[in-house]
Amino acid sequence: MAGSGKRRRATVLDDDERRGRRRLEEAALLLHKIKDVLLRVLLVVQQLLQENKHCSKRDIYYMYPSMFVEQAIVDRAINDICILFKCSRHNLNVVPVAKGLVMGWIRFVEGEKKVYCITNVNAAFPIPVSIEAIKDVVSVAHYILVVEKEAGKRLPRYSNKKACALSFLRYLVEQLHLPAYCLVDSDPYGFDILATYKFGSMQLAYDANVLRVPEIRWLGVFTSDFEEYCLPDCCQLQLSSEDRRKLEGILTRCYLHKEAPEWRLKLEAMLEMGVKFEIEALSASSISFLSQEYIPQQIRLGRLIWVYYVNVQRATC
């Protein structure tokens, strides 16, 4: 019996040793893969810089999907390279993926690609990543409408992806000389998105001159719309404690007191009523109500809030 016990203990020790060696081999293999990924991404970046080209992180992933396995691996590699060289992704010629879509009565050329929304106004195309690549913009539209349905509750208030939408909108306003309207949810996150378009990002105030559209006007939706259009109670939600904290924080921003007092009144009404609702609530009675009645009526009757912003430095407040 004693002899068999010793053999069992010897077997256990052998298994532990094998597991230890396997872990070391796996760790060595992982380090080798990390090195291979970094080198591969560095080679791509080198080519981009040498040829003065740009691509997205998603483009890099699809160059070698079997090596990278998943997008997160490429993302980490890009971040590591930026840390290593103390630079931004922009310096590597790695650009953000286009955020959002454009559709309607417009056509333009992006690099070698012709984007003809005007031939099919119901088709949507990705927003261009690089404004420098746009030329020959033609439009017969009367205004530009920004419908922002970003899931702000789940994503950071500002990201590099939003820079695409901001810079493209600014470009269109400057080139076409059209009024721009913004339609957002009636909640603190919707307003935060609107404020970023108009006043610039509070996180990147030094970019406010470039990444903002001071001419944009707040089209809706407003807390008062709920009663005015007799929307069903099921579409109305109570502000959460997080919503209230965010709204109270927004109300302390200096531009709401100096440049946008009417906006502040709308937010105070939202806080007092303690309710919020989404853009889609306006489609409760009819799927076409929003596009055929609400938006045209707001523009025709001037039911919007237009604030002219004069001092970009105040965006840091």
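The above is record 1. Record 2 follows with the same two-line structure.
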Amino acid sequence: MHLNPVAIFLILLLMSYLAIFLIIKILHLSMFIFKMVVVVSLMLALFIGLLFMFGMLEKFQILIDLIDKVKEIVNYVAQKIK
């Protein structure tokens, strides 16, 4: 079974959202925290996607490093799933 790295990334993203949601529910915190985490992460993903589309991503070296780290994590998880 071979999974696409994008699918693995989305699965990890959903699992992290679920973990944050469960922590908030267990600790009886406000759902506002969860909503803000989701909104901020989606806005960041949209921002990075737009930079990538318009070829301006190379101007933001820290984002390139962050994307490389995420790719490494996704590849590591993909190898463990195999």
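The mean pLDDT is 79.
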